[in-house]
């Protein structure tokens, strides 16, 4: 019986645990501490600051299992997925790391022991091939002399195109900084597969598969050609779980392992395909895994960043389902099946299952309609393709007008051996963006960037007033020694009670003063480590080194504090009422109201809004004490403390707790007790993006004013309805019922009129060669009514032609409808085009039905005769040719 993937994962960790490594948890798929990454794509991501020398590791030896996603940039596996056995969008990286704990000889010995020992993976030694960097003789000698790798299986990889240190076996984070040689371990899966040994064209074939990469970070790259040794050497290794499992379980592809097999079989059950090796089956299986893990990290489909990647993955999978004959919604069912089957190892997926399924189902429903329409349109464009290339205009139309993803168009064109004109498409996209910028009536000023060397000390959590020293003054972006009456500028103090705009909370306002000199502070912002007080001198003057009083506007600050604490109460309440998948996506905290954006795919109905308000006000009445403490980021319990995604946290962080109800990392100002908030009221709920909801709310006195204003409106409405507030609902329901009755009567009268006009039109029809012809001008200016008349007449026609004219707002409209058995004589679109030419109008449609519009015609009787003559001529011509 083959070893399971779960066992292999545990064997790896336990092996390194016995080698005195600390088992460290993998970081989230969405990195909290590196905004440069859309997704975690390697085991070393969470240790980046340690590699860069910015932080020290608590442990010198670490081992991890890291969930990774590679869908863009340097590490983009998306286009390879399904077409070979090696690449996946989502995968698990097994890694061991050393921070000056051991180096090359130990790392290589550990790897060899784990791979070949009968107590562990027990791989045949003769199947393993090794590559090293050509300039790293030390590593080569370890493999050759200590491990006894034969020369024919120990390959040195040189620099590419003679560019120094540019090699597949030389790792570097960027053009400068920590770097070093690497050694890679390959496994030969057998001659029944195609492929070249390492050092050859590795991109083709699946015979030789890289299973482990050991990176020796020992240099600091100063420039293109110069390296200097690092004072402390580091080890970074990575082994893809999916690859090593395929090797140990002795199958040719990761898709045949226990990581995928159950899912592949399920896809085969619902599709019309019987082959395990079908690329669409593999793509769907891979994308099920990646999509559920992305969504479990709080990401929903959108047109930006991680949300766009998720949308691409989901839509690509749905398209491949369609390709293999799956026409019904299927992907969300596969996701549910996968989560259920893997719940023992993926607690987070199990906890967020309902949310994940809802997200996928919603996207699948929306895209299924777009897909059907887009594929039909693309087929039409393929029939008219020139030079074997789909033109840029068609690409742009598919994307902009019909919402069809460009990468899917590219995939489909590739499958049909067509090229695409991406250059023209990109030009059209740029033109559209430029038009949008020009049409935008709003403009945004860039934040003023100041070069300040000052590090201001914030002391405003407890105090609102403090004595300070002026360290710098900026007027018109220039550093000055003095600021005088009437001048606007920025004052930097050594310490301040003014909170600078940060984390969604607006900056404080107030005044800086001494004696009779007053600087009115209108806003406060951060400039590096300096806190800038933005404002104007309204009395006297100020100079550098002046000792001053800095006093915050207490009333405004208090209102801000009430609103900021309320956002924490709201966040915690949303997670209770809607689900733990709720994740903050933005906020605004000011003195008059608060705004909170969060991940949500459900409609926040009145019932849920009411529950939220009751829960928050209940916590306000409990008058809970709010506590803060400074702790090391690495020491916080991430299961109990809410973290914001894509935010880089400092070494020391401030945890704000509202009893046991809410715990978040926050640097903002808050009330001391929830009771100080007074009252909380939601004023508006809206959607601000795909899967992003926004709640706006007010607190305290503003909440009371909001209720009073709405109560005044209710009293006015009650007056209009001649009733009291308590009977408004009953009165409105009665009015709606009466309105429905009147609408029904009106509809009946309209239908009577339509029948009458239709009968009259049929009565007025003339017959030529057994073909009924109606060419009439109707004095009705209702588009819907005209369509109903044409439809009714058409249903009563066995064989004939209908052409109707009518005018709306001095514009002439015309419709033509023809029974199928008359299309051979004349088409609707031909008639419409004839009309359009004669009246300088425009039109279009199909053979059976067409319409158009143009300038009004003064002599309608003459024009109607011309159209009648045109139709009669076509009928006579048809029958004369038939004879």
Topology:
Elements: H1 5-18, E1 22-23, H2 48-51, E2 61-69, E3 71-72, E4 75-76, E5 90-99, H3 104-116, E6 128-133, H4 137-146, E7 154-157, E8 170-172, E9 177-188, E10 208-221, E11 227-240, H5 241-248, H6 261-270, H7 279-296, H8 305-323, H9 331-341, H10 347-351, H11 353-383, E12 389-390, H12 392-400, H13 406-415, E13 419-420, H14 422-439, E14 457-458, E15 465-475, E16 478-480, E17 482-483, E18 488-493, E19 495-496, E20 510-514, E21 517-527, E22 530-539, E23 542-543, E24 547-552, H15 554-577, E25 584-589, E26 594-599, H16 606-621, E27 626-632, E28 652-658, E29 662-665, E30 680-689, E31 692-699, H17 700-720, H18 728-764, E32 766-768, E33 771-777, H19 783-796, E34 800-808, E35 811-818, H20 828-838, E36 842-845, E37 849-855, H21 860-882
Parallel strand pairs: 1-2, 6-7, 12-13, 14-19, 33-34
Antiparallel strand pairs: 2-5, 3-4, 5-11, 6-9, 8-9, 9-10, 10-11, 15-16, 15-18, 15-24, 17-23, 18-22, 20-21, 20-24, 21-22, 25-26, 26-31, 27-28, 28-29, 30-31, 32-33, 34-35, 35-37, 36-37
Helix pairs in contact: 6-7, 6-9, 7-8, 7-9, 7-11, 8-11, 9-11, 12-14, 15-16, 18-19
Protein name: Alanine--tRNA ligase
Domain Alanyl-transfer RNA synthetases family profile: 3-709
Pfam family, one: tRNA-synt_2c
């Amino acid at each position: 019986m083959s070893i399971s993937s779960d066992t292999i994962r545990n064997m790896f960790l336990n092996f390194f645990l016995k080698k005195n490594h600390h088992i460290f948890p993998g970081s989230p798929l969405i990195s909290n501490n590196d905004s440069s990454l859309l997704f975690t794509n390697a085991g070393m991501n969470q240790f980046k600051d340690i590699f860069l020398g910015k932080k020290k590791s608590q442990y010198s030896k670490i081992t991890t299992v890291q969930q990774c996603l590679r869908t863009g940039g340097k590490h983009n596996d998306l286009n390879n997925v399904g077409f070979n056995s090696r690449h996946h969008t989502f995968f698990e990286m097994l890694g061991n790391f050393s921070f000056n704990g051991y180096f090359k000889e130990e790392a290589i010995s550990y790897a060899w022991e784990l791979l070949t020992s009968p107590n562990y993976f027990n791989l045949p030694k003769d199947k393993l091939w090794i590559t090293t960097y050509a300039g790293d003789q030390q590593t080569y000698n370890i493999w050759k002399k200590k491990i006894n790798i034969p020369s024919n299986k120990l390959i040195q990889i040189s620099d590419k195109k003679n560019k120094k240190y540019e090699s597949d076996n030389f790792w570097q984070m960027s053009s400068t900084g920590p770097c070093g040689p690497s050694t890679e371990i390959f496994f030969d899966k057998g001659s029944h597969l195609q492929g070249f040994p390492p050092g050859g064209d590795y991109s083709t074939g699946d015979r030789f598969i890289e299973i482990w990469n050991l990176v020796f970070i020992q240099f600091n790259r100063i420039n293109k050609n110069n390296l200097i040794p690092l004072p402390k050497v580091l080890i970074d290794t990575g082994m893809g779980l999916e690859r090593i499992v395929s090797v140990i379980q002795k199958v040719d592809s990761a898709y045949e392992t226990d990581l995928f097999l159950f899912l592949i079989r399920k896809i085969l059950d619902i599709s019309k395909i019987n082959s395990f090796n079908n690329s669409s089956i593999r793509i769907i299986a891979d994308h099920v895994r990646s999509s559920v893990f992305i969504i479990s990290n709080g990401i929903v489909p959108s047109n930006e960043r991680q949300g766009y990647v998720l949308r691409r993955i989901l839509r690509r999978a749905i398209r491949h389902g369609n390709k293999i004959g799956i026409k019904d919604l299927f992907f969300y069912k596969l996701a549910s099946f996968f989560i259920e089957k893997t719940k023992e190892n993926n607690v987070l997926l199990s906890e967020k299952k309902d949310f994940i399924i809802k997200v996928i189902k919603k996207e699948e429903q929306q895209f299924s309609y777009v897909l059907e329409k887009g594929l039909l349109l693309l087929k039409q464009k393929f029939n008219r393709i020139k030079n074997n290339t789909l033109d840029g205009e068609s690409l742009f139309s598919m994307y902009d007008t019909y919402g069809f993803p460009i990468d899917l168009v590219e995939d489909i064109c590739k499958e049909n051996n067509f090229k695409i004109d991406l250059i023209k498409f990109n030009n059209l996209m740029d033109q559209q963006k430029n038009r949008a910028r020009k049409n935008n009536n709003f403009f945004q000023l860039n934040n003023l960037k100041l070069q300040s060397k000052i590090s201001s000390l914030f002391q405003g959590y407890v105090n609102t007033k403090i004595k300070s020293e002026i360290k710098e003054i900026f007027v018109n972006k220039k550093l000055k020694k003095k600021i005088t009456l009437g001048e606007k500028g920025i004052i930097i103090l050594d310490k301040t009670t003014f909170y600078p705009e940060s984390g969604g909370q607006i900056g404080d306002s107030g005044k800086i003063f001494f004696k009779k000199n007053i600087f009115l502070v209108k806003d406060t912002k951060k400039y590096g480590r300096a806190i800038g007080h933005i404002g104007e001198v309204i009395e006297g003057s100020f100079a550098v080194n002046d000792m001053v009083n800095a006093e915050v506007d207490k009333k405004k600050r208090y209102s801000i504090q009430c609103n900021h604490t309320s956002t924490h109460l709201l966040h915690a309440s949303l997670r209770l009422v809607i689900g733990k998948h709720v994740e903050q996506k933005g906020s605004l905290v000011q003195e008059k109201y608060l705004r909170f954006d969060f991940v949500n795919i459900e409609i926040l109905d009145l019932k849920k809004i009411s529950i939220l308000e009751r829960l928050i006000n209940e916590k306000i009445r409990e008058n809970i004490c709010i506590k803060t403490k400074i702790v090391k980021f690495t020491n916080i319990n991430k299961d109990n403390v809410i973290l914001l995604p894509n935010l880089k946290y400092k070494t020391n962080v401030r945890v704000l707790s509202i009893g046991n109800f809410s715990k978040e990392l926050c640097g903002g100002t808050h009330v001391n007790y929830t009771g100080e908030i007074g009252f909380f009221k939601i004023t508006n709920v809206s959607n601000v993006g795909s899967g992003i909801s926004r709640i706006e709310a007010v607190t305290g006195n503003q909440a009371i004013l909001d209720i009073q204003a709405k109560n005044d409106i209710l009293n006015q409405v009650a007056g209009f309805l001649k009733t009291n507030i308590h009977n408004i609902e009953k009165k409105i329901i009665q009015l709606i019922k009466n309105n429905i009755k009147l609408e029904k009567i009106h509809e009946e009268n309209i239908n009577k009129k339509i029948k009458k006009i239709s009968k009259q039109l049929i009565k007025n029809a003339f017959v030529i060669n057994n073909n009924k012809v109606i060419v009439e001008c109707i004095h009705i200016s209702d588009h819907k009514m005209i369509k109903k008349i044409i439809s009714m007449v058409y249903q009563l026609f066995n064989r004939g032609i209908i052409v109707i004219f009518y005018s709306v707002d001095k514009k002439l409209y015309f419709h033509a409808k023809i029974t199928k058995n008359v299309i051979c004589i004349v088409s609707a679109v031909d008639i419409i085009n004839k009309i359009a030419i004669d009246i300088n109008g425009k039109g279009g449609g199909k053979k059976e039905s067409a319409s158009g519009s143009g300038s009004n015609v003064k002599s309608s009787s003459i024009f109607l005769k011309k159209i009648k003559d045109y139709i009669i001529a076509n009928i006579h011509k048809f029958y004369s040719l038939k004879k």
